[in-house]
Design goal:
This is TnsA-like heteromeric transposase endonuclease subunit. This protein is 28% helix and 23% strand. It has 7 helices and 13 strands. A hairpin with a 4-residue loop joins strand 8 and strand 9. 36% of the residues are buried.
């Protein structure tokens, strides 16, 4: 694994005063380090994590692995907040690639001390643009953390990546997407149920009304939830899902 530089205890990270460098692990396991300007085209959505996801007794945060329908593999997370955010990335139809702990970012602060930071996620969109994501509740962003996030945002601006600092997402959206995520695997895309569902919901209909029109609800509902996950059908996830939720045609991934 690529190791971070140690910041001196009690020191301020400060704003970056010298060029950024990145270190990352390629798919073949090789560890690479180069200037950020030379690494802007690296497919970080395929990079391996630069640090391990530690697990130990009495751990306050809860790490784990999220199986991603977007990548077809597991993506690590270090807390439930990160789990919710990677789930929402997986649900985003514009996202085509995701990696966790994609690189170490290095720079020198005003104090001339070397500083490092590993963002939580890197995501690639279908138009080729990228977003770098850090997850931290607003109440847990101390001065040193904020300085690192600001430096990361500045680095992303240099190479044209979007930067997002995310806290807790909308709980209603999370509950709805978590439910649909239970049907994200392609094994739930079953014919002949999928085609009748797309035909039934060619015009907006309440969820259960359309499911009953397409076949036996117990057989078609898992397929319907998969089509909602994959955005072939659409529903408003900003309000609680229920039997009368309006389902309409969507845009396939």
């Amino acid at each position: 694994m690529v190791h971070a530089l140690e910041a001196l205890p009690g020191g301020s990270t400060g704003p970056p005063t010298s060029g950024f460098e990145v270190a990352y692990v390629a798919l073949d396991g090789s560890e690479l380090r180069r200037s950020l300007a030379d690494a802007w085209a690296v497919p970080f959505e395929h990079a391996l994590p630069v640090r391990a996801f530690a697990s130990y007794r009495r751990q306050r945060n809860l790490p784990g692995l999220w199986w991603s329908a977007t990548t077809g593999g597991h993506i690590g997370y270090e807390s439930w907040l990160e789990r919710d955010q990677v789930m929402l990335l997986d649900f985003d139809p514009a996202v085509v690639g995701i990696s966790s702990q994609p690189f170490w970012l290095f720079w020198s602060a005003a104090s001339s001390r070397p500083v490092s930071h590993a963002p939580d996620y890197f995501a690639r969109r279908d138009d080729g643009t990228a977003v770098v994501i850090d997850c931290r509740p607003a109440e847990r962003r101390g001065p040193r953390d904020r300085a690192k996030f600001e430096a990361t945002e500045a680095a992303c601006a240099v190479v044209g990546w979007e930067f997002r600092l995310l806290g807790a997402p909308d709980p209603v959206v999370v509950r709805n997407v978590r439910w649909l995520a239970g049907y994200r695997h392609l094994r739930h895309r079953v014919e002949p149920a999928a085609s009748p569902l797309r035909e039934v919901f060619a015009e907006p209909l309440p969820l259960m009304e359309g499911a009953a029109a397409a076949g036996k609800p117990l057989a078609v509902l898992p397929v319907l939830f998969h089509l909602l996950w994959s955005h072939e059908l659409a529903v408003d996830v900003s309000v609680p899902l229920h039997t009368g939720s309006l389902v309409s045609p969507g845009a396939s991934r």
